[in-house]
Amino acid sequence: MQVGIIGLKFSGKTTLFNIVTGAGLPTGQGGVEPHLAVGTVPDPRVDRLSEMYRPKRTTHARIEWVDCPGFQPGAGADGAREATRFLEHARKVDALAQVVRCFDGGYGAPDPAGELATVSLELILADLAVVEKRLEKLAKETRLKGKAETPLEPPLFERLKAQLETEQPLRGLTFNPDERKLLSGYAFLTLKPLIAVLNHAEGEPPADDVLAAAGEAGAETVVLSAAVEEELAQLDPAESAEFLADLGIDEPASHLMIRAAYAALDQHSFFTVGEDECRAWTVRRGALAPAAAGVIHSDLERGFIRAEVCAYDDLMAAGSHAAAKAAGKVRLEGKQYEVQDGDVIEIRFNV
């Protein structure tokens, strides 16, 4: 799972990247190269399973965060090159987290709604260019062969074009499974899940109209003060918790971003346990047992027979796998089983 942190220059992108990854990159320099780091997903369930099984290693789920290059609209040729680099890296990630400046910080009066609109338009125009190019190829194909190779494609792309020409993102449309399969290879930017990160000054949360604008963009919304969170990241856990309480902050920005990423990508976690390792795995909600097995290893999906499943809460209540089994809380599930958040799973397979 890879999330690209995007936004205009000096919005606080790299500061947020440092907070969620601990990367320690220099900030406020408007760099032009992307940075990638892996952040651990804190989950007390993994720790409790580790206490129960005492494995050789414990592995939490992870998210890859990419600090995509920022850009400044209206900056001439340099701005155009920056925007091109930004789009190039934004296409490669699974979801986008746009950091929006809601503070002055010496960069001038903030215009958060304007920033949301500016980046949205940049993404829409980039997608429109791809759609128009594809429609040209489909028209040529129809002239030469008398019909498109995939009859579903021309009307689908005409629908995409109509949506984008109204300056609306593609995530506002509904697609059937065949259409989604056709679109999967195009990496459309406005189809990617969006998280709007409203970065405000301490004690100055964003106004209601900004929150509304983020919601209208179809985004998960996170409200935080990156400057405050940066200070918190320098403290030990006890001091950090006390500081959070004093500021009335329920949870740190890293946790907010992880929850938003999971929600935007519609993901949840299941677990594998044993003497060698207790580990959290991430899978899309609604995934069936063979797909979850494939997250662990492709051989497990290919040779999937059954999944032995116990809900995390049932396992904790029983106190051990043997006790859970004796209480009838461990069950065998087949290929049509929909994996639930917190399932503790052992895959039975044969290759």
Calculate Rg over CA atoms: 23 Å
Structural class comes to alpha/beta
What is the residue-mean pLDDT, rounded to a whole number? 89
Question: How much of the sequence is in beta strands?
Answer: 15-25%
Basic shape: flat
Q: Helical region count?
A: 14
Major beta sheet, strand line-up: 2-4-1-5-6-7
Please give the CATH architecture of the largest domain.
3-Layer(aba) Sandwich
**What is the tally of beta strands?**
12
Could you explain how this protein is built, in words?
The protein is an alpha/beta fold and 351 residues long. Helices cover 44% and strands 21% of the residues. It has helices spanning 13-21, 44-53, 76-90, 112-145, 153-165, 177-183, 208-216, 226-233, 237-247, 253-265, 289-296, 298-302, 312-318, 321-326, and strands at 2-6, 35-40, 57-59, 62-67, 95-102, 194-200, 220-224, 267-272, 277-284, 304-311, 331-333, 343-349. A six-stranded mixed beta sheet has the order 2-4-1-5-6-7, with helices on both faces. The protein has a three-stranded mixed beta sheet with strand order 3-9-8, with helices on both faces. A three-stranded antiparallel beta sheet has the order 11-10-12. Helix 4 (112-145) packs antiparallel against helix 5. The longest helix is centred in the middle third of the chain and has 34 residues, at 112-145. The protein starts with a strand and ends with a strand.
Topology:
Elements: E1 2-6, H1 13-21, E2 35-40, H2 44-53, E3 57-59, E4 62-67, H3 76-90, E5 95-102, H4 112-145, H5 153-165, H6 177-183, E6 194-200, H7 208-216, E7 220-224, H8 226-233, H9 237-247, H10 253-265, E8 267-272, E9 277-284, H11 289-296, H12 298-302, E10 304-311, H13 312-318, H14 321-326, E11 331-333, E12 343-349
Parallel strand pairs: 1-4, 1-5, 3-9, 5-6, 6-7
Antiparallel strand pairs: 2-4, 8-9, 10-11, 10-12
